[in-house]
Specification:
By secondary structure, the protein is α/β, with parallel strands linked by helices. It folds into 2 domains: 53 residues; 212 residues, Rossmann fold, CATH 3.40.50.720. Helices cover 51% and strands 12% of the residues. The chain contains 10 helices and 6 strands; from the N terminus they run αβαβαβαβααβαβααα. The protein has a 6-stranded parallel beta sheet, sandwiched between helices. Strand 1, helix 2 and strand 2 form a beta-alpha-beta unit. Helix 4 runs parallel beside helix 6 and helix 5 packs parallel to helix 7.
Length: 282
């Protein structure tokens, strides 16, 4: 058999090509077969889950949402109302612009409540109101959405203890207070609790200490609550929004700068020239 310039015969080259390429071809076939099987399993599982999902009649299901003056809570209340849920929209003030806007609903299913989640008496009034609606209409409380939140940004050295306490009272203890108050109704309906935390409940950023510790706390609280509620058939869900500060009205540079200015040490003044901080409201 004729030899190639490199000293190999065509037969030798053929054998080398076979040795190298055959395993590659076989592996490609195996990979393709594996991907096809995986796709079939996924589609079968999806169809099975879809066929077994239990649909609930929304017309007799109540949802209480905190922090409905602006942002997520406000839009969520309007959306659920349009879907047919009975909505209890908790607002920091029932005379705020957001509350007045929600009151324009003509469905008769949207109830606007004055609900400052840092006040025990207002939370108890909300429980009483929801219970009365339940007794009157048979509408149970199917879900609680802990959405109210507060944000104040600033370096740890510049943030006052009052700021730390205030944020914790809303973001963490407010969540605990409302959850404890409404748990009996949620357990009765075997419903669910949705806690709005943040991606900052998983990572830390400069100037976010007062806010971040409350979101880490909210994550931990939700994890423990989820384990405790399993035996009652109650689901606990965590929502972790990303960078929605501007859209929710939570950030306001001027108000936070005004809040921090009286406490700025002289050594910080040069550093803070032309720099601003952000803050927000419940």
């Amino acid at each position: 058999m004729a030899a190639l310039p490199i000293g190999l015969t065509y037969w030798d080259v053929g054998r080398l090509v076979t040795i190298v390429c055959l395993p590659l071809l076989l592996s490609c076939c195996y990979v393709t077969t594996f991907l096809v099987c995986l796709s079939v399993i996924y589609v079968a599982f999806y169809l099975y889950r879809k066929s077994t999902i239990k649909r609930i009649p929304v017309s007799r299901q109540g949802v209480l949402i905190t922090g409905c003056d602006t942002g997520f809570g406000h839009e969520f209340a309007k959306r659920l109302d349009s879907l047919g849920f009975t909505v209890f929209a908790g607002c920091l003030s029932d005379q705020s612009d957001g509350a007045k806007n929600l009151k324009t609903s003509k469905t008769g299913r949207l109830h606007v409540l004055g609900l400052n989640i840092t006040k025990d008496d207002e939370v108890l009034k909300a429980v009483t109101y929801v219970t009365k609606i339940h007794e009157k209409t048979g509408c149970g409380l199917w879900a609680l959405v802990n959405n109210a939140g507060l944000n104040m940004l600033g370096d740890i050295e510049l943030c006052t203890m009052e700021m730390f306490y205030k944020i914790s009272e809303v973001n963490m203890y407010g969540m605990v207070r409302v959850t404890k108050a409404f748990l009996p109704l949620i357990r009765k309906s075997k419903g669910r609790i949705l806690n709005t935390t943040s991606v900052k409940g998983r990572l830390c950023l400069p100037k976010n200490a007062a806010y971040v510790i409350t979101k880490f706390g909210g994550e931990a609280f939700s994890d423990v609550l989820r384990l405790e509620m399993l035996k009652f058939g109650v689901r606990v869900i965590v929502i972790e929004p990303g960078n929605f500060g501007g859209a929710t009205g939570m950030l306001n540079e001027q108000s936070n700068l005004a809040r921090l200015t009286p406490y700025l040490p002289e050594s910080w003044m040069d550093y803070l020239v032309d720099r601003t901080f952000a803050s927000g409201k419940q």
